[in-house]
């Protein structure tokens, strides 16, 4: 089972991910509100601004405080063992894209 760090020590199973999206659009905001109403929302932001919305195959919605690109890169690093795990990707700022850094 592949696990992906989504920030602040929170881990999700990569095999359960359906989509990693930005929270700004109205349809995504509606999905988040509906999940909250159904009790299927997991808030992993630790009070910070939501930057990624993760949709799982069990219809759970996870809010993360890291960029969607960061989560996607972490999934891709796990899928590609030749890539160094402490790689910081160009579209990230600082050490946000680093797998080995502690996000919390």
Evaluate the radius of gyration. Answer: 13 Å
Please provide the ordered H/E string of secondary-structure elements: EEEHEEEH
- Most strands sheet: 4 strands, mixed
Give me the number of helical elements: 2
* Tertiary shape: globular
Question: Pairing-aware structural class of the strands and helices?
Answer: alpha+beta
Percent in strands: 25-35%
User: What's the pLDDT, averaged over the residues?
Assistant: 84
- Distance from N terminus to C terminus (CA atoms, Å) equals 23 Å
Helical content class: 10-25%
In spatial order, strands of the major sheet run: 3-5-6-4
Description of the structure:
- The chain is an alpha+beta fold and 104 residues long.
- The chain has two helices and six strands.
- The protein has a four-stranded mixed beta sheet. Strands 1-2 form a two-stranded antiparallel ribbon.
- The longest helix is centred in the first third of the chain and has 13 residues, at 26-38.
- The radius of gyration is 13 Å and the shape is globular.
Strands, helices and their partners?
Layout: E1 3-7, E2 10-13, E3 17-21, H1 26-38, E4 41-44, E5 52-56, E6 61-64, H2 68-79
Parallel strand pairs: 4-6
Antiparallel strand pairs: 1-2, 3-5, 5-6
